[in-house]
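Homework help board

Subject: predicted structure for assignment chain

Our instructor gave us this sequence and asked us to write out the predicted structure in token form, then describe one feature. I got the tokens but I'm not sure how to describe them. Can anyone check?
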Amino acid sequence: MQKIKEILNWHFNTGDFKYTAEHLFSEHTKKKINETIISLNKLTDRLKDGSELPEKKLIKDVYDLFLGNYQNPSFSISKRDVRALIWALDFQPSSDNEIILFSNKLDSAIYLISHNWKDSFIISLWHILLKNWSNLLIFEDQRITLIRLLEEKCKRYNKGRKDILKISTQIDLFLQNDSPHKFATLLFKRNILISYAYELLNQKEHIINYDYFASVVNEYIILIGNKNNNSELISGVYMFLHKHNNKKTSLIICSQIINQEKFNNNEEIIKNETVKLIGDPVKVYEWRYSELKEKEQQEVEQARKKLNILLNKHFIDVFFERLVQDDRRKKYWTKFINKIDDIKFSGNKANYRYLKTIESVSKYVDYRYKITSRNQSTCALIIYSKNFVFVEFTDTGALYIYKKQNFNVNLNAIDSMEDLKTWSAYKYACKNAEQSGYIYLNEEGRITHQGYWESRFDAWMRKYYYD
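My token output:
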């Protein structure tokens, strides 16, 4: 008697199905699916913990509703609107409107929140606290009001929601003015880099955007001082600043690192990461920020100048070591490195490409190198210092000195090196006189590199350069 499978002509082989299933998608398709899964996980990680943030329109509506009725003793709102009210605490429709969180109306808002309480409000209030940490230190009464409610509700919470427990069980880290110091200390004890500070709280990465962590990283920099040889710790700070994504914090922290000389053994990390976060120090406008206090801006300016000096030294070394081998000129200009405001290069494309291959200056060449129209082998180093412009050339020849107001060269349209040599061969800035021991001096002109030229240049410097 025939079997059913034979009658139906059905020959089922499980091995065939397994093979087909394993090879249903190409390797390229599998790779794309995996990349999509990773992207989705990253997006999920950026979502706020707890419930979703209310729409901005709802927040504004509740903000207006509260301000229009908070003095009415019978005023009440739904729990849905109370949740929006929490997010409206630091909402400001325009610069002319007040912020409830920093006003005398906060007590009324806290009353409404506490009388319509839901445990999930702990999450929202905690976010408000971290977002506004620095300002709440100024508005002490409002800070105490917010802290008291958060502390009371966290201490009384005895249920099982994991997202609330993450906050309620660690609320002591956020109750005192010096909490950021305690947090930074705990990071060191747990051996957690500042860039992964969110892991200490078992939270998602986005929370380190908050203002609270600007204070934490400030304390962290102080604590890191005793471990300044650890490049991983320093790199972790810069990784944090990229994630934190706040120009004010970046300016302050980067400046602290530069101004504290104990971090100099991580010079390359400091130089490269600071320029990534803030910008080239020669671009003064990138180192300005209206929200900085006067003292903070002074510290930032001090750091900008120090970093610019560091870069300028690299440029001088490169010019007199790589483009022309002249140790005497390198040593001479290094003496004045603290007084140099800016440095530019000019030359052909070949020299430009060569400089781009030198790692220590590669990233800064584009802004400073001006390509000539003619393909000359000579390259120029243009030094701006005090009220003068000094131009050195790789062909040694002579140094050309100009007063700034008389240096009328468009560096963006240089035809050849001759554009930078406007003085005649007879116009000397300093020249030995016929009478032994005397030197003729002029404020502008040429200084040849013949003989012991340093002594002639020193004489010129004493008369015209030093204050």
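Reply (TA_rk): Your tokens look well-formed. For the description, you could write something like this. The mean pLDDT is 89. That's the kind of observation they're looking for.
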